[in-house]
Design a protein that fits this description.
By secondary structure, the protein is of the alpha/beta class. It has 18 helices and 13 strands. Helix content is 40%, strand content 17%. The chain is globular, with a radius of gyration of 23 Å.
Length: 448
């Protein structure tokens, strides 16, 4: 068990006198149960209840009175109640819509009890079979491990503080880039990270990746609306990894005979399960961010390690010294998108990329990020500054003068001029700083 960054958010939630029951959201196997168990060490009483167990489910559904229910939970968990704080953890809560409705009563009638709920299939059932009590719960999202968490798990945490402060000495750049490349290969699934930390064996992770994929496939029947959708979802899980970082079309996806409507519904279901994200483009360089849902989205999966294993590109990491050369640059774009997700624990935040609205134009900026009320373009590529043509076109249209290029070289900030004559600041960002992008932007803008 290693420290996850979300522990600080859980502590903040626990210290908030206005806290509400917390719903921890995330894909299966990203470590929700583990982080709650770790957090429970701060409490005098811990009541872990899993609603996949028949008796636990029947217990919650036996009453609407949470005050009456609480002593029964101590009895069920075979725990003698001590004075002090009590944490109730309701796992796999999607198995009981009645229990979901009880969350509001814990908030209203037992506010002194700390309540966390989670469920591996909760996302796919929301708004269909389950409705969370509006205004009576709050949310946090948990994703696969970030690079900083990977450093912590593998005993390389001496580099964490300099990265957090955007102050890594240049002499350590090559060493940290090699660690990031390893992280990109292993991925951030907690079990894979823990196993790699234990024996530093990449090949030995094969079994873990297989188990994860089979778990996701076995879940399909639990949330697919019908047999056809189950088939399409399984097809995507089998063949969709090869399209990570690419703009996709739904019709005949990956050479299938499935229609756009069938595939689109299957993709959206997998997105609800937080196994992947459909990242849509925007066509404006100015706020607000408006996703163009009629255009082709990019496909990003929840974890680079799973992508590498299932797309069979692990050997490419050995063949190429630069991550940007691996898998035609798609491996780099996948891990950057994944790292950007870990910046926030907010639920429902979507990523976007930029395409030029002009007809016939193929100009595209890989990703964008909103900072200080402005859209910041992010390109993931090397090369001369003058060759970043799409980035230059974006900067000509945007109202500010900051852009980001993620690469494998050391950190720097260049003054660049577009062909139209606009000067802007280009932050050349090493991969290991992506997870602290907001700090980088804040520091860079303040210094300038």
């Amino acid at each position: 068990m290693f420290e996850r960054n979300i522990q600080k958010e859980l502590t903040r939630w626990g210290n908030d006198k206005y806290r509400k029951p917390l719903v921890l959201r995330g894909a299966r196997q990203v470590g929700k149960t583990t982080v709650v168990s770790r957090f429970a060490e701060n409490f005098d009483n811990f009541l872990p209840v899993n609603l996949e167990k028949k008796q636990a489910k029947e217990l919650f559904e036996s009453t609407d009175d949470v005050k009456q229910l609480l002593p029964l939970l101590f009895l069920y968990c075979d725990i003698s109640q001590k004075k002090g704080k009590t944490l109730l953890f309701i796992d796999e809560i999607q198995n009981s819509p009645h229990t979901v409705s009880l969350l509001r009563y814990f908030y209203e009638e037992l506010p002194e009890i700390y309540v966390i709920a989670a469920g591996s299939l909760l996302e796919t059932m929301l708004d269909k079979h389950i409705s969370l009590p509006v205004g009576r719960v709050e949310y946090l999202a948990l994703y696969p491990c970030s690079f900083l968490e990977f450093l912590n798990a593998t005993g390389e945490n001496r580099f964490a503080e300099p990265i957090l402060n955007v102050a890594l000495p240049a002499v350590f750049h090559d060493s940290v880039m090699q660690l990031f490349k390893t992280f990109s290969l292993v991925g951030g699934m907690p079990e894979a990270v823990a196993r790699y930390a234990d024996n530093k064996d990449i090949i030995g992770l094969k079994r873990i990746y297989n188990q994860l994929i089979n778990t996701y496939k076995n879940d399909v029947e639990k949330y697919a609306e019908n047999k056809t959708q189950a088939e399409v979802i399984r097809y995507i899980i089998d063949y969709g990894w090869n399209f990570a970082g690419e703009a996709i079309t739904f019709g005949s996806f990956a050479g299938s005979s499935y229609k756009a409507r069938e595939t689109g519904e299957a993709f959206r279901t997998l997105q609800k399960a937080m196994l992947l994200e459909l990242t849509y483009p925007v066509t404006s360089a100015k706020m607000p961010v408006v996703s163009e849902l009629k255009r082709s989205p990019k496909l990003f999966w929840l974890d680079a390690g799973l992508v590498n294993y299932n797309a069979k590109i692990q050997k490419e990491y050995i063949m190429h010294s630069d991550l940007l050369d691996t898998w035609r640059g798609k491996a780099a774009e996948q891990i950057v998108a994944q790292e950007l997700k870990t910046i926030s624990f907010e639920v429902g935040e979507k990523q976007n990329f930029w395409v030029r609205q002009q007809r016939g134009s193929n100009s595209e900026v890989d990703l964008i990020s909103v900072f200080d009320g402005q859209i910041i373009p992010i390109e993931v590529k090397s090369g001369h500054n003058a060759h970043l043509k799409s980035l230059h076109l974006f900067m000509d249209e945007c109202p500010h003068d900051w852009a980001v290029r993620v690469w494998s070289k050391p950190f720097s900030i260049d003054k660049v001029k577009t062909q139209a004559g606009k000067e802007f600041n280009l932050i050349n960002l090493p991969f290991y700083y992506v997870g602290v992008l907001e700090k980088v932007l804040e520091k860079g803008m303040n210094e300038k």
